[in-house]
Amino acid sequence: MTAVTQHSSKSLNHRLFAVTLFAKAVLGVLQMATAAAIFTGAAERLPALTQWLFRAELAENPNDFLATRAMSLVGVIPTSDMTFYTTYFLAHGGLHIAIVVALLYGATWAHRAAVFVLWAFVIYQLFEWLTVGGVALLILTVIDLTVIYITVREQRSRALLEP
Question: What's the pTM value of the predicted model, to 2 decimals?
Answer without folding.
Answer: 0.63
